[in-house]
Amino acid sequence: MKKLTLFALLILILILATVAGSTGAQAQPVELRIMWYDDGNEGQVLRDLLDRFETENPDIKVVIDTVPYSTILEQLPLQVEAGEGPDMARVTDLPGYAGKYLDLRPYVKDPDYWDRSFPAHLMQSMRTGDDTTGLYGFPNQFTVTGPYINRTLFEQAGIPVPSDTNDAVTWEEWTEVARQVAEATNTPYAIAMDRSGHRFAGPAMSMGATFFDEEGKVTIDTPGFRAMAAIFLGWHTEGITPAEVWVGSGGSYAAAADFFINGQLVMYMSGSWQVQRFSNDIGDAFDWEVVPNPSGPGGSTGMPGGTALVAFAETQHPEEVARVMDYLASEEVLAEFSARTLFIPGHLGLAEQGVAYETDLELAKAALNAFLAEVPKLSEQGYLLNAHPQNTVIFNAIRDRLTQVIVGELSLDEAIVRMQAEIDEAIAAAQ
């Protein structure tokens, strides 16, 4: 009897251990990964928001893999193509992953909310072929390109800011006045632009560049494109721009933000995503502000853009991914994300009602309002160019070939021919 009791006890222990192990295995949360890059504090804000989500959804754990923006541009496409991408990612090339996204429509709670809350042209840019309904992600930030100036340097130089009294200052005029301010204040550099074809496109359109001919074909060689290229290349020839931004970046995207933050640059062509960083890294150390995009034959325009959080089809957990996306795409969460990151929202309702930005820095508020004022002036071809399926090829061809002109490997004529050839080849291959 004693032996039977001990045997029964042993069996009971084994059963309990098996049940406990099974329960423990079931209790393990599903792990999802987001590939993310930061311009300012947005990764920190995202982590805070996801911590709340995980508290309410203990069966899901979200890991944020923060990488440089160059990794998003250069490595993420290869990973996704190989089926080794993350569950979700923050991207700027929305058309570039068409066909690789997870369709969230069968999984999200209210697809109609997604349809009415986000710009149709941005949502369509993630689709391919005859697809008009797929939900693959949402824009978590709308961006506008435009120039910043260090107003303090203008004041120290005793030189008026031309846009204070003139609504149509040209790129030639801004270049000259920035040079004068730099010389008067012993500032190392007068003017700079991020190493990006996207950043170059807005100024080129202002100078009259037309990136689409009458048949809708992408065209590079126009008088306006050449005019802006001549101005830009002149900055390098004259040594009034930091050469290492375009020449010393190792072939990748590069920003000139550090030069501006350190007071080494009078005028900086970048975009609205820098507001948060400048708020943190400059604060009120000097007066920085956004001025209207310079004018020319093509008007006064920057480039629209933005980032989107997207989901990829290779995920093993589509339902859990949809729950995360539903949460982050909700109006309440997006409002907080925009307010804390100082981003222009990509949500139509929030854009209409406004965002109560969480900053006491008047310089930041003024900069955001200045970028909002640029939105009505944006060229229609800017939207078409940004949504083009081969926009990455277009922007990279401009960036890389202009760099070769700067270092003397190509003439501008040769560079334009190569840009067009690369773009034509990519479009033909895609078709």
What composes the largest sheet?
A: 8 strands, mixed
Cα gyration radius (Å): 25 Å
Determine the mean pLDDT. Answer: 92
- SSE class: alpha/beta
- Note the run of SSEs as H and E: HEHEHHEHHEHHEHHHHEHEEEEHHHHHHH
Low-confidence stretches: none
The multimeric state of the shown protein is single chain
Number of strands: 10
Distance between the termini: 82 Å
How many separate helices? 20
Which fold name fills CATH's third level, the topology of the largest domain?
D-Maltodextrin-Binding Protein, domain 2
**CATH arch. level architecture of the largest domain:** 3-Layer(aba) Sandwich
Chain-wise SSE layout:
Layout: H1 2-27, E1 30-36, H2 42-56, E2 60-66, H3 69-74, H4 76-81, E3 88-91, H5 111-117, H6 120-124, E4 137-150, H7 151-157, H8 171-185, E5 189-193, H9 197-206, H10 223-238, H11 243-247, H12 257-261, E6 265-271, H13 274-281, E7 288-290, E8 295-296, E9 299-300, E10 304-311, H14 318-329, H15 331-341, H16 348-353, H17 362-374, H18 380-387, H19 391-406, H20 412-430
Q: What are the defining features of this structure?
A:
single chain, alpha/beta, D-Maltodextrin-Binding Protein, domain 2, 20 helices
Polypeptide structure, described:
With 431 residues, this protein is α/β, with parallel strands linked by helices. It has two domains: 28-142 and 305-353, Periplasmic binding protein-like II (D-Maltodextrin-Binding Protein, domain 2); 145-304 and 379-430, D-Maltodextrin-Binding Protein, domain 2 (3-Layer(aba) Sandwich), CATH 3.40.190. The chain contains 20 helices and ten strands. It has helices spanning 2-27, 42-56, 69-74, 76-81, 111-117, 120-124, 151-157, 171-185, 197-206, 223-238, 243-247, 257-261, 274-281, 318-329, 331-341, 348-353, 362-374, 380-387, 391-406, 412-430, and strands at 30-36, 60-66, 88-91, 137-150, 189-193, 265-271, 288-290, 295-296, 299-300, 304-311. The strands form two sheets. Strands 1, 2, 3, 4, 5, 6, 7 and 10 form an eight-stranded mixed β-sheet that branches. A two-stranded antiparallel ribbon has the order 8-9. α2 (42-56) links the parallel β1 (30-36) and β2. α2 packs antiparallel against α15. The protein is globular and about 95 Å long. The N and C termini lie far apart (82 Å). The mean pLDDT is 92.
